[in-house]
Amino acid sequence: MSRAAFARNAWLVLAVLAVLFSLQFVLPDYQVLMATRMMLLAVFALGFNALLGYVGLLSLGHALFFACGLYASGLTVYHFGWGLPAAFVFAVGASAVLALLIGAVALRTIRVSFMIVTLMFAQVGALTVLYFAAWTNGQEGLSLPASARVADLGVATLDLTDALTRYNIAYGLLAASLLILLVYLGSARGRIATAVRDNEGRTEMLGFNVFAAKLEMFVLSGAMSGAAGAAYGLLFGYLGATFASFQYSIEPLLFTLLGGAGTLLGPLVGVLFMVGLIDKLSELTTAYLLVIGVVLIVLILWFPKGILGTVRERWLPWLM
Amino acid sequence: MADVTPLLVATGLKRHFGGLRAVDGVDFSLPAGEIRAIIGPNGAGKTTFVSLLSGRLEPSEGRVTFAGEDVTRLPAYRRVQRGIAYTFQITNIYLTKSVADNVRVAVESRARRERGVEFEAATLEALQAVGLEDRAETPAGELAYGHQRLLEVAMGLALRPKLLILDEPTQGLSDAEIRAFIALVRRIAETATVLLIEHNMDVVMALADRITVLARGQVLAEGTPAEIRANSEVQAAYLGTPC
Amino acid sequence: MGFGPYLLLATLEGLVQAAVLSITAAGLSLVFGVMRVVNVAHGEFVMLGAVIAWFTASLLTGHPAMGFAAALLVSPLLVGAVAFASERVVLRRLDYNPEATIVATIGLLYILQQTVLLVYGPDARPVDPPFYYTIRFPWFGYSAYKLFVIGAAIVIMGGIWFVLQKTRAGLVMRAAQYDRETAQAFGIPVDRVSAWVFALGAMLAAIAGVLVVPIQQAHYLMGADPLLLSFIVVIIGGLGSMSGTVLAAVLVGLSDGIISMMFSPTLAKMVSTLLVALVLVFRPNGLLGKAAR
Ligand SMILES: Nc1ncnc2c1ncn2[C@@H]1O[C@H](COP(=O)(O)OP(=O)(O)OP(=O)(O)O)[C@@H](O)[C@H]1O
Ligand SMILES: [Mg+2]
Q1: Which of A104, A311, B145, C181 is the most buried (most CB within 10 A)?
Q2: Residues spanned by the domain of C75
Q3: How far apart are CA A190 and CA A201, in angstroms?
Q4: Is the Cα dihedral B180, B186, B190, B194 positive or negative?
């Protein structure tokens, strides 16, 4: 990618971040809450897309990392009374380590086997949450105590019952994730990652350790998903086994495919469309997950490049 | 040249696919600076043999040493880093990346090992060597087949290898392109050792210092072009098997 | 009850589980073997089979055996038709690209499951077994229906073996499984075979659904377990290998039945899933399968 193209992408990301920041001054209260959730799910999907979009690995088990972040932070707060910042940092670290372990094993497989192996590891994770019900309270889950609704940052304390505070924390996490990915993908390492995606054999025969490149992205992806899970648990104060379920592995896939796999802002766009739609439908019917199935099939049949992927193809070839 | 330690040595190299012995006990030695051609009928095991040298395949038995180091257990990418570059028999490039970006990936590989690599200069140099500098911004997938083969060679060159392995590089090229290609390999040979698998005997005779003939996974003969041309066994191997 | 009888009971339960599982997994394995499609919606076909069995049985008043027999006919046919249509409308258009088909079958999973939730509701509903008869062991009574399920599975697996090995249709399927391109070149309509195979795989799942519903009740979320267990079975048995599938089903069914009775079922599933994921990584051809070609 040329410098000019990178600069355009950087400006675009900054512009989107500016808009998101200013939204808090115009949105009504209940939409602030919704937007907070969306931004956290977008971080999750960004992590997922780092893997699918830029090294071409489709994981069907990313709920594992989301749930790892969620429980690693939530349980240390709930059972050991850790402060929220420490719990968050611990959770991101734990997710990265878990991703390193899972990646080291799962990346020995390719394509379909990789999808099944990741799916099965996530299933083990979901069962683990249920098995240790004494700690996690299983399906019913845990609500964090009122004492855990303030984050003590040393210089300031943040009140997490305040909607705008939560919004800005989620916003900060999203901004950080987008900028990390932007810089990573613009660097030589990003170029190698996409080279692996486009042609693994060629890249190896140009002298690159393909396995290491994939593992690196897997860890980044897992850590980002874990960060999203940790923030989700801490900001909303609830830990439940659903977050480890298959559905939470499929949602980032759905968001990413809709927004456009392999586009930096695609996951955010996908979340914007889907989360709103799912929420609306869930008010109408209990069978609202039907939409997941329909959208997945429509996308894969008729719109495989997704929204931003199509925009890139037709109009903006510089899009990253 | 005989007393120089060879750049590459293979001893007792074997590779089986199930019951099929694709490479069946090859001893091979390649001095630095030489252009060596490997010829042999289809299915002789040529691609398999060079894949064992480049590390794309693991040998069932035998050893490979490169520049005095035993590389038998090294994964392919490590061997590339040590200076073995390989161009695929079936064109293998980044179809969606631009021609220049294809080469840049190779330059990046070199930049990780060497200091002070001038990125754009090195990219341009490799493109100029094969005459693709005008097409730098074209997506590689849109190139004509002959140009894609040249792009492969450019990527190999951009690695600045000690040994460049070319697997049937002239397949599908026009006569004019082949003439240009012969000149290109001569230039490459000024700085690198070249191992060339080739079916086109004109190319072989024009370029090779020595020729190794493989048949049924074994070395049938080895010698100068003149010696090989005169070898009746070689002629029998070629005439006796459908080509 | 002493340890011996307890073990006998666990073994019987395990065999019933193995029986149902081998039918389900055979369907998954067939579809993977011939079409190279990993059907994540396979468990939903089991569920759909069970739910349709409930509808059929509740429409037919009279002796429960009548309803059951009708379900055994209607359910696989309807489910097979649904599968056939999905194959034509969706999978074929994806050219059987492995990643795309998996994503599509995930979509199918949600569509089937949520449609059933809409139509049938969230309740679990029982279907009467065709007969109530309890075999009296000295230590406990055991439902004869469950033994019937074991027998039925043996018959069905025998039928699959017969079709695959002794009929022209089986020959065509095996040819397509062995080498798609060559089969195509020899004039076998691989494309049409795929639709039939996908339907056949789903019908096997539906039969398994009908067989379990008197034991387990029909519920819209009941597809998850058969899916996971069939995956486990097919992976241990070697993807696409039919004899491996049967052996693995017995192994998994028995050990799951026994371990679940002695320890926690969740723990049993956790450990077996983990082990199987590792099998897929380190022994991709299954524990019983041949080495890579
Ligand atoms: N991965 C593989 N699995 C099984 N058999 C293989 C494999 N690769 C090569 N073979 C077989 O090994 C033998 C040697 O193949 P190889 O490609 O090395 O021949 P070659 O001399 O390069 O032929 P050509 O001139 O056609 O390129 C052939 O019979 C081929 O079918
Ligand atoms: Mg060859």
Answers
A1: A311
A2: 23-222
A3: 17
A4: positive
**Full domain range(s) for residue A161:** 3-245
A105, A109, A119, best to mutate vs chain C, most C CBs in 10 Å: A119
Give the distance (Å) from ligand 1 centre to CA of residue B49. 9
Distances in Å between the Cα of C21 and the Cα atoms of A19, A113, C37, C213 are 54, 21, 19, 13
State the distance from the centre of ligand 2 to the C-alpha of B167, rounded, in angstroms. Answer: 7
Using an 8 Å Cβ cutoff, are B221 and B233 in contact?
Answer: yes
Instruction: Please check whether residue A260 lies inside any domain of the structure.
Output: no
Distance CA C229, CA C58 (A): 29
Q: Where are the domains of chain B?
A: 34-47+75-237
Residue C103 lies in a domain: yes
Could you report the per-residue pLDDT of A58-112, keeping only the tens digit for each? 999 999 999 999 999 999 999 998 989 999 999 999 999 999 999 999 999 988 8
| Pairing mode of beta strands A142-143, C141-143 | unpaired
pLDDT of C292: 36
Note whether residue A33 is domain-resident.
yes
- CA distance readout (Å), B226 to A286, B2, B223, B231, C211: 83, 19, 8, 9, 78
- How much is the pLDDT for A245? 94
Q: Is A262 a residue whose pLDDT tops 90? A: yes
Identify whether A203 is part of a domain: yes
> Does B96 contact A at CB distance below 8 Å?
yes
Taking CA atoms only, the protein residue closest to ligand 1 atom 4 is B17
The verdict on residue C233 lying in a domain is: no
Residue C129 per-residue DSSP state: -
Min Cα distance A191 → chain C (Å) is 24
Query: Is the ipTM reported for this complex over the cut 0.85?
Result: yes
Give me the number of domains chain C comprises.
1
The residue whose CA is least distant from atom 24 of ligand 1 is: B42
Q: What pLDDT is recorded for position C240?
A: 65
| AA identity, residue C73 | L
Structural domain tally of chain A? 1
pLDDT greater than 70 at residue A1: no
Whole-number Å distance, alpha carbon B36 to ligand 2 midpoint, is 16
Res B167 pLDDT > 60: yes
Cα C97 to Cα A54, A211, B197, C215, C241, distances in angstroms: 19, 24, 34, 38, 21
Let me know if residue A75 belongs to a domain: yes
Phi, psi of C218 (to 5 degrees): -95, 130
User: Where is mean pLDDT largest: C186-195, C204-213, C250-259?
Assistant: C204-213
Q: Which residues surround ligand 2, an ion (CB under 5 A)?
A: B 47, 89
CA C42, C47, C48, C52: dihedral to nearest 10 degrees? 150
Q: Which two tokens stand for residue B12?
A: 């007792």
Q: Which residue's alpha carbon is at the smallest distance from atom 14 of ligand 1? A: B45
Contact pairs from chain A to chain C, CB under 8 Å: 114
Strand partners, B131: none
8 Å CB contact of C102 and A115: yes
* Residue C241 located in a structural domain: no
**For domain B34-47+75-237, is the CATH number 3.50.50.60?**
no
SS3 letters across A156-171: CEEECCCHHHHHHHHH
CA A39 from chain center: how many Å? 9
Closest atom of ligand 1 relative to the B49 alpha carbon: 18
